[in-house]
């Protein structure tokens, strides 16, 4: 075992960064493929779980395109697991110096199969909209963790050998810290309420699946409330930045957030006015995932506690993450 362990990387490298990007992109990607399953009415293309049918682990030609789509989405889970294992192996020897990075890879590594189990429960419950929402939110949570992982790995590479460099790398004050907290909180509330709106809408994943019996107009209006709060917080944060000596990373995170809000708002209203066409709903799901990325970046750049270790090998100091 020691021989195998010694072959693993003992420092953060460009490969670590590539795998961190792959972790983030793949967790966003499975949200998109899951959305495609639901929007094509393929949610019960494989009517059993963990088997595809009572007699088969894989989809069969008789199940048609819906079976192929649903089974394909299930197989992507194994791609995510493979990436998460590779990510873990690149940082596991850094447990004593970069513990928070290892912990984040573990959260993602265990979160992916848990998310798969929730997906199985959605099948068992005939795509109950509450369970479907939990399935989506679990993936969104993994996107947030993966974003933080990438930010920290990028910071370590940018300041190799320089300990104590903070992820909050520019000037900040009480107002910007509070606004960053509001940004992340409002984003999550908007995403959660968005799943309720979706569960009330027409795209159930299967014609026979249950829907929420809420008033669609009412839940849509409720969903917009945290979006307005988010917009206000983003604008005030952008204005406040001009009074402070903020870093390039801080400013970029806020402007990226504003760009995502504008794009997501445009798609959201467009899909509402045009009767929820499939492509726009799918793009809005992508926007939700990217919004979590943007909000996490803002939160990290103004409220993150991570500092570089300045030591890239396990044999170095043992400061916990």
Give a quick set of tags describing it.
about 325 residues, mainly alpha, disordered C terminus
Textual characterization of the structure:
The protein has 321 residues and is mainly α. The chain has one domain (8-303). The chain contains 9 helices and no strands. It has helices at residues 2-6, 14-39, 64-91, 99-124, 129-158, 174-200, 216-241, 248-273, 278-303. Helix 2 (14-39) runs antiparallel to helix 5 (129-158), helix 3 (64-91) runs antiparallel to helix 4 and helix 4 runs antiparallel to helix 5 (129-158). The longest helix has 30 residues, at 129-158. The chain starts with a helix and ends in an 18-residue tail after the last helix. Mean pLDDT is 92; it is low at 312-321.
User: How much helical structure, as a percent, in the residues?
Assistant: 55-70%
* Average pLDDT reading: 92
Ranges where pLDDT stays below 50 over 5 or more residues in a row are 312-321
Distance between the termini: 25 Å
Structural class: mainly alpha
Order of helices and strands: HHHHHHHHH
Shape: flat
User: How large is the share of residues in beta strands?
Assistant: under 5%
Number of strands: 0
Rg measurement, Å: 21 Å
- Please give the count of helices: 9
What number of structural domains do the residues give?
1
* Most strands sheet: none
Concise overview:
The chain has 321 residues and is mainly alpha-helical. The chain has helices at 2-6, 14-39, 64-91, 99-124, 129-158, 174-200, 216-241, 248-273, 278-303.
